[in-house]
Design a protein that fits this description.
The complex is a heterodimer of chains A (about 325) and B (about 170). Chain A is mostly beta strands. Chain A has one helix and 29 strands. Chain A has one domain: 7 Propeller (Methylamine Dehydrogenase, Chain H). The longest helix of chain A has 28 residues. Chain B has four helices and seven strands, in the order αβααββββββα. Chain B has a seven-stranded antiparallel sheet with strand order 1-7-6-5-4-3-2. In chain B, strand 3 and strand 4 form a beta hairpin. Chain B is globular. At the A-B interface, loops of A face loops of B.
Chain lengths: ~325, ~170
C-alpha cells in the first residue's frame, strides 16, 4: 500500500515537473516580444508573439520612430524625434529605466554585435552618435554625409552602414572611418545587411539596391511602390511597399521579385522571430502589425497596436 | 469660419506633436452615410467623378498617359492639381491615388478611400486616409508656410470638405 502510494506520488510529481518544464520552455525561456513604436500617440506597444496580443502600452517621448533591441542585455532603445531623446526600456519589466537627452533627432538605431554600443543616426547634424550601453550616455560621434537615415551593423566585416536619403548614397564605416560611399537608387531609407551583402530600400525608385561588400558591385531589383525597408531570410528578401500596401517577396538566387502579398495599410518596417518562424510587418496606415508564418508566408493575424505604428529598426526581442 | 477653426486646431495639434523631423503626416477621417455600400462605392471608385462631390473641385479632365490615368483638376480657387490614379481593390472597396503636380503646401501626398458596411443595409462608412510630408525637407529653421502644421492644416481641409461633400452628394440623390 505504501509502495503504491509512493508510486502515485512519484508519477504526479513527474507529471507536474514535465508540465512545469513545458510551460517554462514555452513561456519563459524564449524571448518573444515585439516592441512597436507608435509615432502618432507617443507610445510603444509590447506584443506577446506567442499569444499574439498586446500585453502592455508604454508611454514614451514624443514621436517615437527608431528602435533597436539588445537581446543579451534585455534592453530596448527607443528614439523619439519629437523630444530629441532616447528612452531605454528594461525588457524584463517593460519599464523605462533611463532617458538620454540628445538635442537632435534620433532617426534610427542599431547596436554593435557585443551590445556594448548603440549607434544612432543624427538627422539634423549629419552625425552618427555612439552611445555606451554600460554608461547609458553618448560618448562619441562620427561626422557623416547628409541626411543619415537607416543604419545597420555588418558582423562579417565589422562595417557600420548608413543610407543618406537625400544624396542617394550608402556610406560604409569601419572603426569610425569612412571606407566607401556608393550610389543607390533615389531616396534610400531602410538598410539591412547579412553576410557579404547590404540592401537599401529606394523610396522614389520603387527598387532595392543590393551591395556586394566583398567587391563593391551593386545590383538593382524592382519592387512595389515606395519601398521603405528590406529584410532577408535564407534565400528570400522581403520589402515593405508603403503605397501598394504589400510586401514584395524576392528570390535572392535569381535576383527578382517573385510575388507580392497583402499587408495592412502603409506597411513600413519588418522583423523576423527566427525560432517562432514569424515575420512581423508594422502598418503605419492601419495602426497595426501583420504577423505572417515564415513557412508559407500566410497571414496569421493582424494585431491593433497604436497610432502610426512604425518601429524603424530591429524590434523583436528574441 | 469652420475651416479656419479646423485649420487652427490642426495647427496647434501639429505644433505640439510634430515640432520637427522628417515625419510623415497623417489625416484620417470617416463619415457614416445613409446609402447602401454599393451606392457609396460606385461614386467613390469613379476616378473621373470627384468634381461631382468635392466642393473645392470645379472642373476635371481625364488624361491617359501610356498605362497610367491622370486627372487634371481645376479648383474653385483657379489653381490646377494633377493626380495619378494608382489602384482599385474591389474586395476591400478601396481606391488609391496620389498628387503629382500642384501648388500645394505639402509634398509626397498619397491617399486612399475605403468604403465599408454600416450598421444596416442602407448605411455605409467612408474613410479617407492621407499620408504626406511638409514641403521643407531640410533641417531647421523651417521657413514659414513650409512646416508640418501648414501641410497638415491644408490636407485636413481637403479631407474634411471631401468627406462632407461625399455625404451630401450621396444622400441627396
Amino acid at each position: 500500500m505504501i509502495i503504491q502510494n509512493k508510486k502515485i506520488v512519484l508519477t504526479i510529481l513527474i507529471c507536474f515537473l514535465t508540465l512545469l518544464t513545458y510551460f517554462y520552455s514555452n513561456n519563459e525561456k524564449i524571448n518573444s516580444k515585439a516592441y512597436i513604436t507608435n509615432q502618432g500617440d507617443n507610445t510603444v506597444s509590447v506584443v506577446d508573439l506567442i499569444n499574439l496580443e498586446v500585453i502592455k502600452t508604454i508611454k514614451v517621448g514624443v514621436a517615437p520612430l527608431g528602435i533597436t533591441i539588445l537581446n543579451k542585455k534585455n534592453l530596448a532603445f527607443i528614439g523619439n524625434v519629437g523630444t530629441d531623446d532616447i528612452n531605454i526600456i528594461d525588457t524584463n519589466t517593460d519599464e523605462i529605466i533611463r532617458t538620454i537627452k540628445l538635442n537632435t533627432a534620433p532617426l534610427s538605431l542599431t547596436s554593435s554585435p557585443d551590445e556594448s554600443k548603440v549607434y544612432v543616426t543624427d538627422w539634423f547634424k549629419n552625425n552618427i552618435l555612439i552611445i555606451s550601453v554600460d554608461e547609458m550616455k553618448v560618448m562619441d560621434s562620427i561626422e557623416v554625409g547628409k541626411t543619415p537615415s537607416g543604419i545597420t551593423f555588418n558582423k562579417k566585416y565589422g562595417y557600420l552602414i548608413i543610407t543618406n536619403r537625400d544624396s542617394n548614397t550608402v556610406e560604409i564605416y569601419k572603426k569610425n572611418k569612412l571606407i566607401k560611399r556608393l550610389n543607390t537608387g533615389r531616396h534610400p531609407f531602410g538598410v539591412h545587411t547579412k553576410g557579404q551583402y547590404a540592401y537599401t530600400a529606394n523610396v522614389y525608385d520603387d527598387s532595392i539596391t543590393i551591395i556586394n561588400l566583398a567587391d563593391w558591385t551593386t545590383k538593382i531589383i524592382k519592387v512595389g511602390a515606395h519601398p521603405y525597408n528590406v529584410l532577408t531570410h535564407q534565400n528570400l528578401g522581403f520589402v515593405t511597399n508603403t503605397v501598394d500596401d504589400s510586401l514584395s517577396i524576392i528570390d535572392l538566387k535569381i535576383g527578382k521579385e517573385i510575388k507580392q502579398i497583402n499587408t495592412g495599410e502603409t506597411p513600413e518596417n519588418l522583423d523576423i522571430h527566427r525560432k517562432l518562424n514569424l515575420l512581423i510587418v508594422t502598418n503605419w496606415g492601419s495602426d497595426s502589425i501583420s504577423v505572417y508564418s515564415l513557412k508559407n508566408l500566410k497571414l496569421i493575424k493582424e494585431i491593433k497596436t497604436g497610432a502610426q505604428s512604425r518601429s524603424f529598426g530591429d524590434f523583436i526581442l528574441q | 469660419m469652420r475651416k479656419f477653426i479646423l485649420a487652427l486646431t490642426a495647427l496647434a495639434f501639429s505644433m505640439s506633436v510634430f515640432a520637427h523631423g522628417p515625419t510623415p503626416q497623417k489625416v484620417q477621417e470617416s463619415v457614416t452615410v445613409n446609402v447602401s455600400i454599393d451606392k457609396a462605392w460606385a461614386l467613390v471608385k469613379d476616378f473621373g467623378a470627384i468634381n461631382k462631390w468635392h466642393p473645392a473641385v470645379k472642373d476635371i479632365k481625364i488624361e491617359k498617359r501610356g498605362e497610367d490615368t491622370y486627372r487634371i483638376l481645376t479648383l474653385e480657387s483657379g489653381d490646377k492639381l494633377e493626380e495619378k490614379f494608382r489602384s482599385i481593390d474591389e474586395g476591400l472597396k478601396k481606391i488609391k491615388w496620389e498628387i503629382t503636380k500642384g501648388n500645394v503646401p505639402f509634398s509626397d501626398f498619397n491617399t486612399y478611400i475605403i468604403v465599408s458596411k454600416g450598421a444596416n443595409a442602407n448605411e455605409s462608412i467612408i474613410q479617407w486616409t492621407a499620408r504626406f510630408y511638409r514641403t521643407y525637407k531640410l533641417n531647421p529653421p523651417i521657413p514659414e508656410g513650409q512646416d508640418d502644421a501648414t501641410a497638415k492644416a491644408a490636407v485636413q481641409g481637403i479631407v474634411d470638405n471631401g468627406i462632407a461633400g461625399l455625404k451630401k452628394t450621396l444622400e441627396s440623390k
